[in-house]
Design goal:
By secondary structure, the protein is of the alpha+beta class. It has a domain of 89 residues: Alpha-Beta Plaits (2-Layer Sandwich), CATH 3.30.70.3270. Bound molecules: iron/sulfur cluster (SF4) (2 copies). One iron/sulfur cluster binds next to helix 2. One iron/sulfur cluster binds next to helix 3.
């Protein structure tokens, strides 16, 4: 008799687990696919996305504040002193994106706002030394995914199911404020 009771309890437990599995499967049938068909589809980065840094050469004063605030001691500022003009002249400026952690400190503290963070995130390359951008590469205007008519753009919010977004209302408040 005991064996029969144990067997029945195990069978009920197994049926419950199978039922729970089916509920999870059915729950996912309501959701949008989260996979993005990159590179044919791309997410539109958020407004405060920290991508490749843009450098405006005309605004530079070679103060080296960006070097002092960088946790990686990264920007390389090469300058010479113009004694006649009593000012520094910037010879070259570079940032190695193979080392940069995109913290945004340099952008935050630059006194002339000559640095800004763009929405560019496609920095992959075969040779890591190509990630060392000089002032010419840093001065290139960013490419926006919205302007590329060959790809389909998706906003961040539609990749997640509505119910999941509702569950993160606190997060939405932070991102929308
Ligand atoms: S984003 Fe951060 S790590 Fe990168 S160069 Fe600026 S301060 Fe340095
Ligand atoms: S903080 Fe700004 S102005 Fe100063 S060296 Fe860096 S990029 Fe140039």
């Amino acid at each position: 008799m005991n064996r029969f009771i144990n067997y029945s309890q195990d069978a009920i437990q197994a049926a419950r687990y199978i039922g729970q599995g089916f509920i999870v499967t059915l729950d996912h049938m309501n959701r949008f696919p989260i996979t993005i068909q990159y590179p044919y589809e791309k997410l539109i980065p958020s407004e405060r996305f920290r991508g490749r840094i843009h450098f405006e050469f005309d605004k530079r004063i070679a103060c080296e504040v960006c070097v002092r605030v960088c946790p990686m001691n990264l920007p390389v500022v090469d300058w010479e002193l113009r004694r006649t003009m009593r000012r520094k002249r910037l010879r070259s400026y570079s940032i190695d994106f193979g080392i940069c952690i995109f913290c945004g400190n340099c952008v935050e503290y630059c006194p002339t706002n000559c640095l800004s963070m763009t929405e560019e995130y496609e920095l992959s390359t075969h040779d890591r030394h190509e990630l060392n951008y000089d002032q010419v590469a840093l001065g290139r205007l960013p490419v926006s995914v919205i302007e590329d008519s060959a790809i389909k753009t998706l906003s961040n919010s539609i990749s997640l199911p509505k119910r999941v977004m509702e569950g993160h209302s606190g997060l939405q408040k932070i991102t929308s404020s």
